[in-house]
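Limitations

Structures in this collection are predictions, not experimental determinations, and the ligand pose is part of the prediction. Treat each record accordingly. The example that follows, with magnesium ion as the small molecule, is included so readers can see exactly what is and is not provided: the inputs are given verbatim, and the output is the predicted complex.
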Amino acid sequence: MRKGFPEVIFCQGKTPQQVKEIALHMHKNGSNVLGTRSSKHHFEAVKEAIEEADYYEEARIIFIRNTVVNKAKGIIGVVAAGTSDLNVAEEAAVTAELLGNTVKRFYDVGVAGVHRLIDKLDEIRQCSVLIAIAGMEGALPTVLGGLVSSPIIAVPTSVGYGANFHGLSALLAMLNSCACGVSVVNIDNGFGAAYTASLINRIGES
Amino acid sequence: MRKGFPEVIFCQGKTPQQVKEIALHMHKNGSNVLGTRSSKHHFEAVKEAIEEADYYEEARIIFIRNTVVNKAKGIIGVVAAGTSDLNVAEEAAVTAELLGNTVKRFYDVGVAGVHRLIDKLDEIRQCSVLIAIAGMEGALPTVLGGLVSSPIIAVPTSVGYGANFHGLSALLAMLNSCACGVSVVNIDNGFGAAYTASLINRIGES
Amino acid sequence: MRKGFPEVIFCQGKTPQQVKEIALHMHKNGSNVLGTRSSKHHFEAVKEAIEEADYYEEARIIFIRNTVVNKAKGIIGVVAAGTSDLNVAEEAAVTAELLGNTVKRFYDVGVAGVHRLIDKLDEIRQCSVLIAIAGMEGALPTVLGGLVSSPIIAVPTSVGYGANFHGLSALLAMLNSCACGVSVVNIDNGFGAAYTASLINRIGES
Amino acid sequence: MRKGFPEVIFCQGKTPQQVKEIALHMHKNGSNVLGTRSSKHHFEAVKEAIEEADYYEEARIIFIRNTVVNKAKGIIGVVAAGTSDLNVAEEAAVTAELLGNTVKRFYDVGVAGVHRLIDKLDEIRQCSVLIAIAGMEGALPTVLGGLVSSPIIAVPTSVGYGANFHGLSALLAMLNSCACGVSVVNIDNGFGAAYTASLINRIGES
Amino acid sequence: MRKGFPEVIFCQGKTPQQVKEIALHMHKNGSNVLGTRSSKHHFEAVKEAIEEADYYEEARIIFIRNTVVNKAKGIIGVVAAGTSDLNVAEEAAVTAELLGNTVKRFYDVGVAGVHRLIDKLDEIRQCSVLIAIAGMEGALPTVLGGLVSSPIIAVPTSVGYGANFHGLSALLAMLNSCACGVSVVNIDNGFGAAYTASLINRIGES
Amino acid sequence: MRKGFPEVIFCQGKTPQQVKEIALHMHKNGSNVLGTRSSKHHFEAVKEAIEEADYYEEARIIFIRNTVVNKAKGIIGVVAAGTSDLNVAEEAAVTAELLGNTVKRFYDVGVAGVHRLIDKLDEIRQCSVLIAIAGMEGALPTVLGGLVSSPIIAVPTSVGYGANFHGLSALLAMLNSCACGVSVVNIDNGFGAAYTASLINRIGES
Amino acid sequence: MRKGFPEVIFCQGKTPQQVKEIALHMHKNGSNVLGTRSSKHHFEAVKEAIEEADYYEEARIIFIRNTVVNKAKGIIGVVAAGTSDLNVAEEAAVTAELLGNTVKRFYDVGVAGVHRLIDKLDEIRQCSVLIAIAGMEGALPTVLGGLVSSPIIAVPTSVGYGANFHGLSALLAMLNSCACGVSVVNIDNGFGAAYTASLINRIGES
Amino acid sequence: MRKGFPEVIFCQGKTPQQVKEIALHMHKNGSNVLGTRSSKHHFEAVKEAIEEADYYEEARIIFIRNTVVNKAKGIIGVVAAGTSDLNVAEEAAVTAELLGNTVKRFYDVGVAGVHRLIDKLDEIRQCSVLIAIAGMEGALPTVLGGLVSSPIIAVPTSVGYGANFHGLSALLAMLNSCACGVSVVNIDNGFGAAYTASLINRIGES
Ligand SMILES: Nc1ncnc2c1ncn2[C@@H]1O[C@H](COP(=O)(O)O)[C@@H](O)[C@H]1O
Ligand SMILES: Nc1ncnc2c1ncn2[C@@H]1O[C@H](COP(=O)(O)O)[C@@H](O)[C@H]1O
Ligand SMILES: Nc1ncnc2c1ncn2[C@@H]1O[C@H](COP(=O)(O)O)[C@@H](O)[C@H]1O
Ligand SMILES: Nc1ncnc2c1ncn2[C@@H]1O[C@H](COP(=O)(O)O)[C@@H](O)[C@H]1O
Ligand SMILES: [Mg+2]
Ligand SMILES: [Mg+2]
Ligand SMILES: [Mg+2]
Ligand SMILES: [Mg+2]
Ligand SMILES: [Mg+2]
Ligand SMILES: [Mg+2]
Ligand SMILES: [Mg+2]
Ligand SMILES: [Mg+2]
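Predicted complex:
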């Protein structure tokens, strides 16, 4: 593990009691602790035991800071379409921040209105790494990939219905992107995208 | 059937002999005859029996003209990315022409280079109906749908490999398009898209 | 966007609070606002803030009228089998009406009793565009396609169980229709079908 | 096994030599022998060893008659759309005949032209059992089921392309038929349909 | 429809109010009415309006008798493994009875204890038609098919977990049965199996 | 690796040249060498270089013996239906023999004729471990599992067509077996089943 | 069934009342009774009727002991990654114990930290049979298989989200394991793995 | 596009003639040209027209150098298991080299022999970015991810059979990796992985 990078708990499917115990154990080792997919109930159980725990509601993240991560130089851009993908986008953005990165959010740039994306290009191009989040037809990373030359981590979301098949449509679209420089993480995996983006953003650090 | 619209033979999976016999039968009724997915072997068998048969190689179409279809007013635009989708695009474009439409081809406009698409917008917007053809991540109809206000018939193609699953990625992407005004036909079904586009293009004719 | 066509909110998966805020924002711009897949809770939140909001219960649609859409000339026919597909059929029919179309509903015409469909043919043939809605084996657009010469937008529904796989059976059947002139939208996407049908119904308008 | 019903060899995937040996073994027991999915090569190997072997080319069936099956009273109707499903239809029809049934073929009755089916209804209704064969959208058994009151064995075929997924579309459509009295066999399984239809056609025999 | 056969309502997904209204309408026509997949709530709504309505709890069936169906001669056997498939088995058995058939239930005969099946063979062989119901690996119709010479309607159930995929394992197993005389209906479709079995059981009646 | 167990080459997809080189390298180390899924071309290339190489044609196995494996005490039974599964069955049987086991073959015992299986039970019950091989509906391991108390390694085969989906039907059936004591290997993986069976057969050896 | 091995009830999907009745019936026969996938409600219903019933909460197992199973010689090792797979791991471990085996649990050894696994190797290698439990990417049995020479029963779990598809990712990974000696049971089937492991662990007993 | 990065032709599915023409066109623009998935026939056609074209046979890559790419500082490590994944591994390695990177190959490190991987760790840890290539159970990126702290681009390959489903097993395993820092490209997409790795390897360059 990277120095200062937190230990991580995937809270979904665990009881608040289980999460609390795991968190306490990690906390006592002096690690930073990051809980993803946590509900308020998870947070409350942790907060009882560890006063300094914080909760990021939209991102569904619990964080306990014990050491400081030094700041990375580059910027991570989180690019997403809108309201529906917000939870996943925030999971990515908050994770990236907690791993010591400067993050810029670009949240109103769905491909069915490509000019909104183009209008932000100058700012987007200043980022070292991009995280592109999209549900439904999952076209955003492809369009973005044609406009920038930084690496893109694509996150398909399960937003949609019917032939979306819980995110399969966006996942397959992203894996088949005709743009270069796009790699993909699991459906709704904002955390994983941010972790990878952080590793990339620190390349060249010694 | 629309007046003057041809009778249609789906040649794939039929022997040249079978195609010839069906074509002869239709020809004798005085219908126009359109054979799709035909190989040169199909064409040669038909040509032997019916002198006036024509062959469109890239479109893989046999056509026998017996009556004239009157010209529709609007333009059908066929929008596609490039070399790989050519057969399907030509199947659509040639079918639309044979059904009496003026057709414009826009063939170098993949979404990983969105400016090429934007550069053609003025011309594209003059079309009454659009056929958008794409393989792989199938994003073209969505991006297009955000830029125009005419109806779009989307054709996923089986171009790709791996998680493309023979066109499934493009098909699902198109069905889940976040743009309005997009409807979808079967994978590689250039013929069906053109037929539907022709019906649309003649709405208001009496 | 077409003049007078509304801005659209997909309410499902959003909180009533989120929907209210988006609606208010659009309303203040003077747009018509159309909320699809809305529950009563969504509507109540919107109604509190915007007095003139209307709710179409079976269609699950919220509508706020700010400008008048001029009436299209042709008729859109909505063809469906019965009770189970009612919500999707009404989503299509109400959307089409709100987009300025005259709509005729043909709701008791499942293919397992093909004579009921044939009895309505004269009326159905007067429509410029048809929306055909069916779950289970999804055969309605195919049978219809053989009887009429207007374009058909097919909507598979998730009605069924077992090997229906949440609408997959109807979706695949419609994509493979052996009738000409059929194109398909996402499972349960009555809104999308109506939007496309409206664009088609206005072709030739200037 | 029913008295006089043949022993059956599924030839596909076996060498001509293997088929010959199995056939000889059965032949020596005095059984009738029926080989399905046989190529000409299979037949030639069998013919060399067993003079009285017959070959039904379109049905891809080898038959060796050793005992007579008594004739069933009712008629089995084989209903199909056209050229493409011919092999499967003939496999069903020839099998049913070899199992001692009177068979009527109705081969030009696809659902995209429902009047052709309706024109044949009087004759079709005289059958005790029906076998309905269709590829692509697989709607035939459903439409038929609404028009007759005899049991229907539905056979999906692998005819089609793209989202047909080798017969999956027709299979799912048939399993989800909204008509009563329809049961289904494997994709392309004309033999199995005919065998079942034969058992049904002999109910009441002692 | 067969004389005396009921009109059918598929209650699942309908409100009690909707079911009541449909039932009343059919009842007034003098038809027998059969409601499948009905909950107690459906029944109570119907009972309020139609005093003579009956409820079969395990079968989840509502029945309203208005005319008498004459009794069929043959016996329908319903063969199943045990407790878990009980609802589907009863849906089949009760439907078959209400359609005028004598029904025998064989409910403790799973293939993982093949001797229990063999012990019942004499009785099972007296049936004209068999309905074989199984979840999980779906092997019962195949084993049964090797032991009897009557036609078998196979019903896969959604009983199982994991790689069962909601009945897919049993469905595929039954469609691929290596025994002759087996045809298949939708997952959990006890009603459809019984309806088909009834049609078969009446073959030869005039 | 177990003492005396061979090093293994999966030949399919490798060139004869590649296989020869790998085999030579292993051979020089003094290991026994086992090549699976090998064609005659693979064998010929190997034979050229290594005189003592043997070829088992039906099993598609190349073997080069350099050391002797001591004989295991128990018997491994290979149970299969017939001609179509022969290659996989022989791959299992020959592999098990080459790993030092006594093997008994039971090859004519498909579940559609369950008495043939029951007739062999005494012999089958003398085996310590069983390998059960079946395609299509994959019911054999389940029926077998109810009749014996030794562990069963189930091998689904890709034998079948249509809804078999290249072995998926048998695979899912085996994973969902309602019999106890059954575990499963990959489709057509006779080798893997035999390797596992060999490890089991040697439990208790020191 | 093995002497002393229990009769088994799969409780999920059964009412507490049904489970109680089946348990009572088995109990009266003097068998040991094992209920899997049981909730507390199931247990309470059974406990009311049978005083000596025990409940293993994490394993979700009810057990009623009526006879003693003699102890097997070898050890069964249950190897798993951590908190999320705990229920399945305990289902396996408790079942194996109740079937008369000595069980060792290795629960903190996920492959993303392969040294934890390597640290336990000496102990793991003392086991006769291993059960390897993993969700998500399902790599544990493969890594383990390369390090030990005992047979491994692999249990995929449904732990994960998105492209996990309810355990499909782990299931496919395990079936495709490139390590020898691995066979697989159904997703989440801890019971089945333990039953098979018990049979294996008793090979050589007379 | 990055300065000096080539224009790319996906040759598969194109005729040699088409590839030659596209290559010539790019060549005349002074770009470097990279053709992937090219056969010898493609190369020969290109070579005829462009003398300086080179061919990398195992990588299936055509390259035409017109400008020099400056060398990146970091090393890209290509980690793979063995012979079967060689083509994909070489496609990745050669692409990375042609894009100006220093590449180290680690080709004998499958996870079923985890010590071979561990033995190379010191060298692997000197790489800035890793490309991990695996078929079958696709576990390599996960195990690797636990041992290093550089970002990993995972490439599933279609190597395998049966439940591998043409690379699906490895793809799903990689998307569900329980290790951090792993992102995924399409099945067999060595080129895409190398392109992304190159972008990452140049982060911090100005
Ligand atoms: N390329 C195509 N894709 C889909 N459907 C087609 C195609 N070409 C023809 N058809 C349809 O197939 C019918 C002819 O099929 P057939 O009778 O088998 O030749 C026509 O009426 C069309 O509806
Ligand atoms: N019922 C529906 N089905 C599919 N797409 C819809 C539906 N309702 C709205 N949309 C689309 O979703 C967009 C709004 O999504 P959102 O910004 O998440 O509210 C609109 O522009 C429409 O294109
Ligand atoms: N359990 C069932 N499974 C499948 N189809 C059914 C079932 N019950 C009724 N049906 C069919 O559904 C039709 C009634 O559907 P509905 O009009 O939606 O009530 C009937 O005509 C039957 O063909
Ligand atoms: N957790 C489990 N997973 C799979 N099969 C089980 C499980 N528990 C019990 N079984 C099997 O299910 C049978 C009992 O099923 P049932 O008769 O429905 O209670 C037993 O004989 C076992 O073979
Ligand atoms: Mg780019
Ligand atoms: Mg638009
Ligand atoms: Mg039509
Ligand atoms: Mg009927
Ligand atoms: Mg039978
Ligand atoms: Mg057993
Ligand atoms: Mg091992
Ligand atoms: Mg790492």
